[in-house]
Amino acid sequence: CLLTNEETTYNLETNKDLLKDKDFALWAEFHNGVAQSIKLSTENFNNKSYIRNWILFNKPSQPSYEHGGFLFGMGLLKQLDSLYATDVYQYMKGAHDGVAAHDGVTIGILLGRSASKISSMEETLSRTLCLHISFLIPSTLEINISMNIQCSAVIGIGLIYMSTGNRLMTEMLL
Prior knowledge:
By secondary structure, the chain is mainly alpha-helical. The protein has 9 helices and 2 strands. It has a two-stranded antiparallel ribbon with strand order 1-2. α2 packs parallel to α4, α6 (103-115) packs parallel to α8 and α7 (123-130) packs antiparallel against α8 (147-160). The termini are far apart.
């Protein structure tokens, strides 16, 4: 049901087979996480250590798409810069009490960090993103990277090299 300004109600019908797919609901959770972070008050965002501690303190015991969306939203607000490289590494490797890396959290970190550094051509972030694109990794290494993570890494590279005219990165991605 959708409500408009005129109080008219529209009934939306969905395909029942589509609702059986688990990924259908996961992306809604991701977007809810983005919305939660964007609603935050920005008055305390001038203290980087406060933001870092707050992000780490609110890290859930089990990774989720919602938390990945929250991290992406923090990147949109340029607050992921407050995390140390070791913090980002712990998030990306899946340091949630032995739980493997989580697609939603990895996507949130990759896109969030890229969104906070648009057109910066930052080398360390560029390397991190390239490590998540299978055709940029030597073929001798067999690493299984999900397609969603690879797509977010390509989008992230596009963001950090946006309007720079960097020929090397353009040729590598084409």
